[in-house]
């Protein structure tokens, strides 16, 4: 006798929708998913219960993907979107990877299927003497599959909603995606691949995806496009979205991309002294190959040979290409870079505060910097078209340096301790300006000196050796670019007299002018009278002062020895 299937037997009108939902929840398991997929082809049924099945099906991925796609196609899109965005925020990205490679589950102990181990696929006999097992790439962790499937659902849902103001649904979804993306510490590239596909689908851009990395994105396989049900709550009398509404949606996508860019680049580690995208080092290697150390792998080679570093380039290249498809230009990024608003949120605090115009939507300040730097660096590294408007050291880069470095510092003490990816982007723009001979003119000597002091502090305080080197190179190069000997001398004097950092004083002594006037001017600061400092009543205090200033004393003695050789 054939066993009856409760999912078939209890179908409405045999039970009401609420009771049937309870029956599904009680009987839901991987074996019942094919039956549920069949049941969900009933549009009326899926419209009434589909939205309440999302949170039940997400943990059963990838087996439940077909059912989730059924709900996206046939459920009430306005209700389903709420459940999908809620599920996005609840994805648990903790513990994606095992603590050690040899961790084994204890017999009889229940394990959480958050990570799927690698498997091997057998190779069939082909007449040879031996057969070999070929390792198949490890499936992606469950949270990544959940993120991918939910974004695939949103791609369908947003195209189904018919309303005069679709941007209100879109902004909520984008914010949920950002929150979920921010919660993930690993597999960022796979998540970004899903994000880019979502934006392309909903915004209507047609550019194909860039080639994936080797270990790549085994995202849920694309399904054949199936017909979707109309929006059951569509107001036939409502007007179509206006041109301004379309512009708001486009701006939302642009803002979203800058926020994703910020989150991704700031999440990158600086292994092998590769801060962010290592734009400074790669630019210098491209522009001055003679400075590359023979026999040592260049940073450019590392970004080609290292799979993780190469994945960074692919991910960023996809974002830059998508931003270009969305109509974002370099000039659109400058106001965000120069403004004080960090652009930290896509969604207003209340529904009454939804943006009325596209310009009410802020771009991410840090994300705009990364996007601007990536586009400009590409003109050298990949020979993309150069912008028509020049970006000069004064006043353009001076503003950028102040906004991203000095504005966040307390009296200069934290300059150089900002995220290394931010420092790399800021300094890369300066390298491009210098190589293009776009130094410009500072407003006055005070602006000139302050700019050089910021660079000097970065060269002093940054924990990254490459960042320190590039900042020092920029400071000395821009100092030499000033045609006024008097102003150059004034900067060195000011550094020796007022700067509290001994290493900057030592660095200032490396610039020697070939006239006695320079030495006469700097002598009181290069060779100060130490009688008062080192002859106090306490020998302990005197020795502490001596130790504190030892670097400066040694640099001064070296300089003194050089003068009298």
Automatic annotation (TrEMBL):
Stretches the record annotates as Disordered: 206-243
List the GO terms this entry assigns under cellular component, sorted alphabetically.
Answer: cytoplasm
Q: Taxonomically, which superkingdom?
A: Eukaryota
Q: Which InterPro entries match?
A: ARM-type_fold, YAP-bd/ALF4/Glomulin, YBP1/2
Which Pfam families does the record cross-reference, listed alphabetically? Kinetochor_Ybp2
Compositional bias of kind Low complexity: 227-243
Output one GO BP term: cellular response to oxidative stress
**SUPFAM superfamilies in UniProt:** ARM repeat
Could you tell me what this protein is called?
A: DUF1760-domain-containing protein
Question: Which organism is the protein's source?
Answer: Aureobasidium vineae
Organism lineage? Eukaryota, Fungi, Dikarya, Ascomycota, Pezizomycotina
């Amino acid at each position: 006798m054939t066993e009856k299937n409760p999912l078939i037997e209890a179908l409405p009108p045999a039970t009401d929708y609420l009771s049937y939902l309870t029956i599904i929840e009680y009987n839901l398991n991987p074996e019942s998913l094919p039956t549920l997929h069949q049941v969900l082809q009933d549009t009326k049924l899926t419209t009434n219960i589909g939205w309440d099945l999302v949170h039940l099906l997400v943990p059963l991925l990838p087996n439940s993907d077909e059912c989730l796609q059924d709900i996206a196609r046939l459920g009430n899109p306005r209700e389903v979107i709420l459940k999908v965005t809620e599920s996005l925020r609840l994805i648990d990205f903790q513990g994606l990877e095992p603590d050690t490679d040899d961790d084994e589950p204890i017999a009889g102990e229940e394990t959480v299927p958050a990570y799927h181990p690698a498997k091997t696929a057998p190779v069939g006999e082909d007449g040879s003497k031996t057969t070999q097992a070929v390792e198949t790439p490890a499936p992606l962790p469950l949270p990544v599959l959940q993120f991918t499937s939910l974004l695939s659902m949103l791609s369908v849902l947003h195209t189904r909603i018919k309303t005069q103001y679709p941007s209100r649904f879109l902004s909520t979804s984008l914010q949920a995606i950002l929150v979920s993306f921010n919660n993930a510490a690993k597999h960022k590239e796979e998540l970004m691949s899903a994000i880019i596909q979502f934006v392309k689908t909903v915004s209507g851009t047609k550019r194909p995806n860039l080639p994936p990395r080797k270990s790549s994105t085994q995202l849920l396989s694309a399904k054949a496009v199936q017909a979707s049900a109309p929006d059951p709550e569509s107001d036939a009398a409502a007007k179509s979205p206006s041109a301004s509404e379309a512009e708001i949606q486009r701006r939302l996508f642009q803002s979203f991309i800058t926020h994703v860019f910020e989150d991704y680049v700031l999440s990158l580690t600086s292994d092998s002294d590769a801060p962010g995208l290592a734009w400074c080092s790669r630019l210098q290697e491209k522009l001055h190959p003679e400075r590359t150390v023979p026999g040592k792998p260049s940073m450019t080679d590392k970004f080609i040979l290292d799979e993780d570093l190469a994945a960074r380039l692919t991910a960023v290249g996809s974002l830059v290409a998508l931003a270009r498809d969305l109509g974002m230009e370099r000039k659109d990024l400058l106001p965000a870079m120069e403004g004080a608003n960090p652009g930290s949120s896509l969604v207003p605090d209340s529904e009454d505060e939804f943006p009325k115009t596209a310009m009410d939507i802020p771009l991410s300040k840090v994300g705009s910097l990364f996007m601007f730097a990536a586009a400009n660096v590409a003109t050298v590294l990949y020979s993309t078209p150069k912008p028509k408007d020049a970006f000069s050291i004064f006043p353009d880069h001076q503003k950028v340096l102040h906004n991203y470095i000095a504005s966040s510092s307390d009296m200069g003490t934290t300059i150089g301790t900002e995220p290394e990816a931010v420092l790399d982007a800021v300094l890369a723009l300066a390298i491009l300006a210098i190589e293009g001979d776009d130094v410009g003119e500072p407003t006055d000597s005070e602006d000139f000196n302050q700019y050089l002091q910021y660079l000097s502090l970065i060269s002093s305080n940054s924990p990254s050796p490459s960042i320190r080197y590039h900042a020092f190179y920029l400071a000395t190069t821009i100092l030499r670019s000033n045609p006024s000997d008097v102003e150059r001398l004034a900067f060195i004097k000011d550094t020796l007299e007022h700067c509290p950092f001994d290493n900057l004083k030592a660095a200032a002594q490396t610039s020697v002018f070939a006239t006695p006037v320079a030495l006469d001017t700097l002598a009181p600061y290069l060779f100060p009278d130490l009688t008062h400092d080192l002859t106090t009543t306490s020998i302990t205090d005197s020795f502490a002062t001596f130790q504190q200033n030892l670097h400066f004393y040694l640099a001064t003695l070296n300089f003194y020895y050089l003068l009298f050789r």
